[in-house]
Amino acid sequence: KQEVTQIPAALSVPEGENLVLNCSFTDSAIYNLQWFRQDPGKGLTSLLLIQSSQREQTSGRLNASLDKSSGRSTLYIAASQPGDSATYLCAVSFSGGGNKLTFGTGTQLKVEL
Amino acid sequence: DTAVSQTPKYLVTQMGNDKSIKCEQNLGHDTMYWYKQDSKKFLKIMFSYNNKELIINETVPNRFSPKSPDKAHLNLHINSLELGDSAVYFCASSPGTGGGSYGYTFGSGTRLTVV
Fold first, then answer.
1. How many pairs of residues across A and B have Cβ atoms under 8 Å apart?
2. Which of B48, B109, B111 sits opposite A98 (nearest CB)?
3. What is the per-residue pLDDT for B47?
4. Of A5, A105, A108, B68, whose CA is between 20 and 30 Å from A71?
5. How far from chain centre, in Å, is Cα B14?
6. B109 — contact with chain A (CB < 8 Å)?
7. Cα of A30 to nearest chain B Cα, Å
8. In this predicted model, what pLDDT tens digit does every residue of B48-85 receive, in sequence order?
9. Are residues B20 and B100 in contact, defined by beta-carbon separation less than 8 angstroms?
10. How sure is the predictor about B39, in pLDDT bands with cuts at 50, 70 and 90?
């Protein structure tokens, strides 16, 4: 069964700290992996998309890595800010799945002043 | 603005009613989706359409009927609403499907509450 798992479920850090969110998936045959951010009561904002042939993607203070062989991805957030507080979702498009996304359960991040 | 837009944003209705949610994208994407986010915030696909053709139906009760009049629109009609249908429904689109590596753009969601 193709599944996506995210740990930790919740994380609270002081402002300025660098942090890593983890995502693991059960099948290495993937098209891509996408990280999203969801603010309370809002929709999903795409942060980074990593194609299966890529090892990492960067956008500003965010860096996402992909290791297909071990079924893992990490989202690194540098110099965290209170505005980074949100739920971060990892989603995988598995091969043969018609480009549907399989989501993890998310990591709820709180960055405190 | 280029976006995926869905209406209404909030929907409160009684059990047994029939309701529709509309979705439109102006990104020129070929594929559109409906996802459901349950009370535990878990997101799961319901349907996918590519150029008006249904390609994914993820064991959703047949009370849910998607309709795609053209590739820019995907509506969701729900008959005989039940309490368990209460959730947030997200529309999304992507440039392609089936063998491609395409990112998604999501709408802002419709919060459905069945009372």
1. 66
2. B48
3. 93
4. A108
5. 20
6. yes
7. 9
8. 998 888 888 887 899 999 999 999 999 999 999 999 99
9. no
10. confident
* CA distances (Å), origin B40, targets A104, B37, B43, B86: 12, 8, 9, 12
Query: Are residues B106 and A98, on separate chains, in Cβ contact within 8 Å?
Result: no
Angle CA A85–B87–B2, to nearest 5: 65
Cα–Cα distances (Å) from B2 to A72, B50, B72, in that order, read 32, 19, 12
Of A42, A99, A106, nearest to B102 by CB-CB distance is: A99
pLDDT (0 to 100) of residue B37: 95
Residue among B93, B83, B89 nearest B113 (CA) = B83
Q: Report CA B16 to chain centroid distance, whole Å.
A: 20
Give the mutation candidate from A93, A101, A109 for the B interface (greatest B CB count, under 10 A): A101
For chain A, say whether B9 makes contact (Cβ under 8 Å): no
- Here the tokens at position B102 are 């395409």
- Among A110, A109, A81, A112, CA closest to A22: A109
The pair of structure tokens assigned to A3 is 């599944």
Which tens digits make up the pLDDT trace of A45-104?
999 999 999 999 999 999 999 999 999 999 999 999 999 999 999 999 998 777 789 999
